[in-house]
Amino acid sequence: MSFVLTELSDRILTVTLQRPEKLNALNAEVVEELRRVFHEAKANPEVGALILTGTGEKAFVAGADISGFPALTPVAARDFARKGQAVFDLLETMGKPSIAAVNGFALGGGCELAMACSMRVASRTARFGQPEVALGLIPGYAGTQRLPRLVGKGRALELILTGDPIPAEEALRIGLVNRVVEPAELLPTCRALASKILGKAPLAVRYALEAVNHGLELPFDEAELHEAALFGLCVATNDMKEGVAAFLEKRPAKFTGE
Ligand code: COA
Asked: Which of 98, 137, 213, 254 could form a disulfide with 117 if both were Cys (CB 3.0 to 4.6 A apart)?
């Protein structure tokens, strides 16, 4: 691993992109390293939640690596997009909550990576955007899909068609980020958020993620059926019995993830 640093503590895996001289731009090696990290995080029971961030104060991720674009063929570009989409899908659907700690520029693929996380916390200095049209491109890591789902079609199209970046406060106003904090508070805020989720029933957290992520892609009535099936599955868990018993006995619950 040369571009992606991981650190596991208190069941939170902090994933730091480290390519500061290129503002953490995503080249093929970085994307492949992210794939490996997400694959291992999904399988590792010690990992309960992920925080993604960029090294330095300037950039979260300034996009896909533009220096590789001149050599792209149409077929290679399609593969490039499909690979990035698959890696970000893996992050979104791994069944564990992920928080983007957006410490600076989140442009193009960086904004798309942040959107694949369950939540986004931004430093006051962060900037978000999908500037691909300025390069004669469109977003290729599912930005055309996740952005309208997060902020609505009109606002998504304004960002995608103008390519203009927006500051963190504007991203908060349109619902692209959950919170904006001072730079020094960014990682502590994300850790506190992750710790709070880790205190809840793990299987319920997993099924809630699945109900939202998968359900949003289904017709409403099918999504309701899916939700009801997962709700039923929760009742089969020890954690549900423990959570309800703890409430009735007025004591904190002790969840085991079973
Ligand atoms: N791909 C490849 N290299 C990138 C990059 C990207 N997406 N974003 C930044 N870099 C590189 C720059 O080329 C520069 O490298 P160099 O020092 O070898 O010339 C280095 O990172 C620092 O960037 P620089 O442009 O000098 O910083 P800045 O503060 O003047 O501007 C940005 C910052 C983010 C506004 C500017 O770098 C930028 O517009 N980047 C591209 C964003 C983009 O279009 N992303 C979507 C790609 S599809």
From this structure: 98
Residues 17/61, Cβ–Cβ less than 8 Å = yes
Per-residue pLDDT reduced to its tens digit, 144-194:
999 999 999 999 999 999 999 999 999 999 999 999 999 999 999 999 999
Q: Tell me if 112 CB under 6 Å of ligand 1.
A: no
The whole-number pLDDT of residue 1 equals: 62
CA of 147 to the centre of ligand 1 (A): 22
**Any atom of ligand 1 within 6 Å of the Cβ of 197:** no
Residue minimizing CA distance to atom 2 of ligand 1: 65
Query: Nearest C-alpha to atom 8 of ligand 1 is from which residue?
Result: 62
Q: What is the pLDDT of residues 136-157, one digit of tens each?
A: 999 999 999 999 999 999 999 9
192 shares its domain with 207: no
pTM above 0.85, yes or no: yes
Nearest CA to ligand 1 atom 47: 63
Whichever domain contains 238, its CATH number is: 1.10.12
Q: Is residue 210 annotated as a catalytic residue, yes or no?
A: no
Residue from 17, 21, 23 to probe ligand 1 pocket by mutation (most atoms less than 8 Å from CB): 23
Q: Are residues 87 and 101 in the same domain?
A: yes
Residue 36: give the domain boundaries.
4-198
- Could you tell me how far CA 98 lies from the centroid of its own chain? 5
Alpha helices in 174-237 (DSSP H): 186-198, 202-215, 220-235
Structurally, how many domains does the chain consist of?
A: 2
CA distances from 65 to 19, 107, 136, 155, 177 (A): 11, 11, 15, 26, 24
The 10s digit of each residue's pLDDT in 23-70 is: 999 999 999 999 999 999 999 999 999 999 999 989 999 999 999 999
